[in-house]
Design brief:
heterodimer; A: mainly beta; Immunoglobulin-like; 6-stranded mixed β-sheet; 4-stranded antiparallel β-sheet; B: mainly beta; 7-stranded mixed β-sheet; globular
Chain lengths: 114, 113
């Protein structure tokens, strides 16, 4: 069965610091990869996704992620975080036809200190 | 366009009872997925429905069941509730496939006492 690992449970950063959240998955075939974000009091929403092509994908609010196939990784980055980025971030993988499900990591809580 | 609507927002039940949660997807969306979210485990897949058919089921006991109606609305039922069933139950809808963008509802917070 496929699985998704997010390395950090809780990350605390000061405003303007750079962010990198790790995500690794275990599945040998073709995957679609996602990052979802849950802001306090709000529902989960899509941040960005990778299906194919350029392994560096850009999402909303200045976020980007890089797919490294050889490392089974899809790390999320942002050059300069803001207080409004405080949220929980979930990495997810879709492994192809027939599964009809996303497998999520356990999430990384990001706290940005003004 | 209205988002995904889940009712009720909060539920308190006691062990042994059963509960039914409801989800209305975005208009035009035919796929509805359910997830259980807990602080320690993140989001775990329960099941996915499309055109009233369950296409996939997660690794949960048979006490967890669901269905989808012809208007794409979906319900999930948990029978014989256990303390460990306390969680946020999220519903998500998409046009067709799970690898499309999922739109999530705000969830139903279930507390089992």
């Amino acid at each position: 069965a496929q699985s998704v690992s997010q390395h950090n449970h809780h990350v605390i950063l000061s405003e303007a610091a750079s962010l990198e959240l790790g995500c690794n998955y275990s599945y040998g075939g073709t995957v679609n990869l996602f990052w979802y974000v849950q802001y306090p009091g709000q529902h989960l929403q899509l941040l960005l996704k990778y299906f194919s092509g350029d392994p560096l994908v850009k999402g909303i609010k200045g976020f980007e992620a890089e797919f490294i196939k050889s490392k089974f990784s899809f790390n999320l980055r942002k050059p300069s975080v803001q207080w409004s980025d405080t949220a929980e971030y979930f990495c997810a993988v879709y492994s192809g036809a027939g599964s009809y499900q996303l497998t999520f990591g356990k999430g990384t809580k990001l706290s940005v200190i003004p | 366009k209205a988002g995904v609507t889940q009712t009720p927002r909060y539920l308190i039940k006691t062990r042994g009872q059963q509960v039914t949660l409801s989800c209305s997807p975005i208009s035009g969306h035919r796929s509805v997925s359910w997830y259980q979210q807990t602080p320690g485990q993140g989001l775990q897949f329960l099941f996915e429905y499309f055109s009233e058919t369950q296409r996939n089921k997660g690794n949960f006991p048979g006490r967890f069941s669901g269905r989808q109606f012809s208007n794409s609305r979906s319900e999930m039922n948990v029978s014989t509730l256990e303390l460990g069933d306390s969680a946020l139950y999220l519903c998500a809808s998409s046009l067709d496939k799970a690898n499309e963008k999922l739109f999530f509802g705000s969830g139903t917070q279930l507390s089992v006492l």
